[in-house]
Amino acid sequence: MQTVHTKTKVFITVMTYPHPSQSYQELICTAGITEDGKWVRLYPIDYRYRPHHQKFRKYQWIEVELAEQGAENDGRKESRKPSLDSIRLLGEPLDTKNNWEARRNTIDNLPIHTVNELRDLYNKDKTSLGIIRPTRVLDLTIKKLDPDWKPAQQKALNQLRLFGPQPKHLAKIPFKFSYVFECEDSRKPHNAMITDWELGVLYLKEVNRLRSEQKAAESVKNKFFNELCHPSKDTQFFMGTVLPYNTWIVIGVFWPPKTFPKAPPQNLQIELDLL
Fold it and tell me: 69-122, pLDDT tens digit by residue?
C-alpha cells in the first residue's frame, strides 16, 4: 500500500545534536509547529547530509511532505515521517527584533504545561512534545562521559553510502548537561538532560578557543544557565520524550526578554481632573 504524504508548512523550533543511527547513519530530532498551531516531529532527518538548499535553521518556516504516521516503532502522537527530497525553505529564519515578536507570534499561541502534566498527557494519548515555563531554574549540571562513541555507534557513522556524500566526522560531546528546575506543581526539582544542537556547537567552538574540555563545559554552563535562564528572560523549555519510555528531556530553549505592560502616563490623573 502506497504511503500518502501531505504537504505541510512547519515552523522549525527544535534541532538536537546529531546521534548515530544504524538505519540512517546519523539523525537529529527535529520538531516544529504547523500552520494550524500543532506540534509535529519530523523523523528521520539526516540533516548534515541534506543538500545546501534544504538545510533549514531554527525559527524558519519550511514546506515538507509528511506521511500520516511516523517511522517504524515510533508511536508518539506528533511523529511524522518526512519525504526528505520534498523539503523546501520558505524565506529566512525569523529574527529577534522587537523582543522576538516574529517568533513569539507563533510560539506564544501554544499551551504551557508542567513536566507532570506532560507525563500525564503522554500516558493519555502519547503526547510527546510540549513547552514548560520553569518557575525556577536551579542549576545546569555537568557530568563527564566517555569521550568516544561505542563501537556499534562508530560503525554506524562509518558506513558507506551507495549514493550521495560519504561519511562525515561527528564529534562526540564528552559531557552530559542537565537542567535542574522546578514547575508550579513540583514536589521536588526535575532533572532533565538537554540535547539542543546549539549547546553542542557552542561546546565544540569553546574547546577550540579555550583548548580545555572542562573550561569549554563551564563556558556552556555560563551561557545556558546564567544567560538563557537569567531573570530578565522569559525562559521556556521545549520538551520531548525519549523512546520507548515516558522520559522527558529538554530539546531546546526559548529565551526571549520578558515584556511588561506599559505603565500609564504619569499625568493621567491630572488629565482626568481637567475633565
Answer: 766 668 899 999 999 999 999 999 999 999 999 999 999 999 999 999 999 999
Strand locations in 25-184, DSSP E? 25-34, 39-45, 61-67, 79-80, 88-90, 112-113, 129-132, 136-144, 175-182
Residues 6+ apart with CB under 8 A from 9: 34, 35, 61, 62, 63, 90
Evaluate whether 161 touches 130 at the Cβ level (below 8 Å): no
Cα 103 from Cα 13, distance rounded (Å): 9
Q: How far apart are CA 76 and CA 70, in angstroms?
A: 8
Residues 6+ apart with CB under 8 A from 254: 13, 103, 107, 131, 235, 236, 237, 238
What pTM does this model have?
Answer: 0.90
State whether residue 187 is helix, strand or coil.
coil
H-run or E-run covering 198: helix 197-210
User: What are the tens digits of pLDDT across the range 172-216?
Assistant: 999 999 999 999 999 999 999 999 999 999 999 999 999 999 999
Using CA atoms, how far apart are residues 229 and 237, in angstroms rounded to an integer? 10
Residue appearing with cell numbers 512547519: 10
Residue 17, C-beta contacts closer than 8 angstroms, at least 6 positions apart: 28, 173, 195, 196, 197, 199, 200, 201
